[in-house]
Amino acid sequence: MENTIFKSIIWGLVIAPIHLLSNEPITELLQSEKSKEAGEYTLIVEGYDWGSAASRVILSLDETVSSVSSNDYEVSVRRSTEHAQIPDEMASGKRTVQYAYVSDKNGNRVAEGKFLTLLLTVGPDMVLASPMQYIPSAGGNLWIDYHMTITNTKTGQVWDKETHRILPLANEFDLTGKYMYNNDISLTYASFKPKTSNKKSPLIIWLHGGGEGGTDTTIPLMANRAANYASDEIQSLFGGAYVLVPQSPTFWMQSASGEYTRGKENDIYNEALMGLIKKYVADHPQIDADRIYVGGCSNGGYMSLKLIILYPDYFAAGYISALAYQSQFITDEQIQKIKNVPIWFVHSKDDPVTIPEETVVPLYKRLMEAKAKNVHFSYYDNVVDITGFFGGPNYRYHGHFSWIYSHANHADFDFQGNPVLLEGKPVTIMEWMAVQRN
Questions:
Q1: 253-265 pLDDT, tens digit each
Q2: Fewest CB atoms within 10 Å of the CB: 24, 137, 173, 297?
Q3: What is residue 101's three-state secondary structure?
């Protein structure tokens, strides 16, 4: 504050004689100086098929405007974290401004106002677009320090102070859930309450992968597109549904030794997780206990199947992608227990992490041999861009990312490549799940 006052005094002494000579209003010169002070911005971060990305930045203005040009703005970013050294090519650089418009403070377009929004180019290979980084030594995906500098190249005005961050869809969840089991295991969770007046609503449970553990519940929602189960598209299929996203402190497949279990040894979290689920259902009497669905990817796929094996009468259906539970550790008795539970598996043939020939393929065949009536398996050759914006079928994600097809409600075919039919009509995975009940 003292420095600002001192600068103003000095500036006044400098411009006063100039004003007397040129007759230029002092207020205009002061306004010009003020415009060069660093401004504030709000960052909008969205979840995409491949992960999170900063898609828009909202700039506060000193005056009301009715038009803006994207050509007047340059955006640079700096990415860092105390947990690891980010490679130079991923640490800093320029972002591409795709479009600009006058907006309100939340980024909604208006005819005139004191904010403008820059729409930034995003894509699966644009690392500089993401304020999240996968750091194995730190347990997986983490929010990192993501600093933007936005410059109006015509006026020299700079914005470099992030004051707010908007996470569409994720911000509609209650992110503060905590559950303690036996004074021993603490689980955090995010939850969504449907906007519906129905007397009873179903519950969709999503269990994250191995890289989304911890205590920050935005991570399992935003590290991939899991928040999409609260989207209008999917909610409309269920007539409104609760969504519960529990978070493991470490990873769901952790055994007592601290190592991964593939199903041979017991994990340390399934009892605590089931306790959380039952308490959440008890605390929300509007949940339809006959329509509770559990699903997850990779680590979460393991835990989803584990809960179905342990509690086959509790869940109305399962939706499991990139299953990490190895079939060799599932007994024939357990196959008989779960063969009547509706389950839809999603996997990619080129998954090098949860190898399908060790997990989902033999399990599916065993269920079919046991005469399972309502088990489906969408078996993709590869995981590709389903939006068409980034190359379509010519763009391939890592083969482990088959949860993309679940989050986007894309899976719609069975193991033989035929459409999954419901009352004679083709359905997607979420359309199918919405009608399953105990």
A1: 999 999 999 999 9
A2: 137
A3: strand
